[in-house]
Write a structure and sequence with these properties.
Split_barrel_FMN-bd, 205 residues, 7 helices, Pyridox_Oxase_N, 8 strands, PMP_oxidase-like, globular, LAMI_0E04874g1_1
């Protein structure tokens, strides 16, 4: 089952705007895990490469992809060749940073000396912080997505298309995609698990 169109907008926003993700792969048959911090680009269904051999019906499939570049002499690439099942973690670092900065700002604010009996209903600094923050912004801060990875034929038009998309999103990745040892990998997203700051979890797919 491909990643559903009902995937939360927050996750789609993360996929569109984040620069990095964590890619988890696992070898077979040894089952040795590996995690890598990667540049990537997200490919929504309407931007998936369409060869002239595909019918209009095939092209309309709601498939979401992530495109990655890697060297062939890496553990993750070897793992993908043996075992195409991968996991991807994306995180809302911007929201997390805002939360951390605001909490530190609140905690570093000097506590005024008491001038008398305080109102028992007076909210604490932390409560003030939580009331001021946009709760919807905090409701979904990270997502784990499972998918199937495969390397793309470097001589194909598909490879040229996705390489251009990757460079458009991350121009500085060009230093990693030079030479014959480079490979493009596409990950077809299958499902997602979204966790929020209160440890609530939802599954999609």
């Amino acid at each position: 089952m491909s990643c559903p169109a009902s995937l939360p907008e927050h996750v789609l926003s993360l996929l569109k705007t984040s620069k990095y993700l964590h890619l988890a792969t696992c070898s077979k048959p040894e089952c040795i895990p590996s995690v890598s911090l990667m540049n990537y680009t997200y490919i929504p269904p309407h931007k998936v490469y369409n060869s002239h051999d595909e019918t209009a019906e095939e092209y309309q499939k709601e498939e979401h992809y992530i495109i990655l570049g890697t060297q062939k002499d890496t553990a993750k690439y070897a793992n993908i060749q043996q075992n195409p099942e991968v996991s991807v973690l994306i995180h809302d670092w911007v929201t997390a940073k805002k939360l951390s900065l605001r909490k530190n700002s609140q905690s570093n604010t000097p506590t005024p000396e008491p001038t008398g009996i305080q109102n028992a209903d007076h909210p604490s600094r932390l409560l003030n912080l939580l009331q001021e923050l946009n709760q919807s912004e905090l409701s979904q801060m990270s997502a784990t997505l499972r998918g199937y990875a495969e390397s793309i034929d470097p001589t194909s038009q598909e490879s040229k298309y996705y390489e251009a998309e990757l460079l458009k999103t991350n121009p500085d990745v060009s230093v990693y995609i030079e030479g014959k040892n480079f490979a493009l990998v596409k990950v077809r997203l299958e499902n997602a698990k979204v966790s929020d700051s209160e440890n609530h979890t939802r599954f999609y797919g």
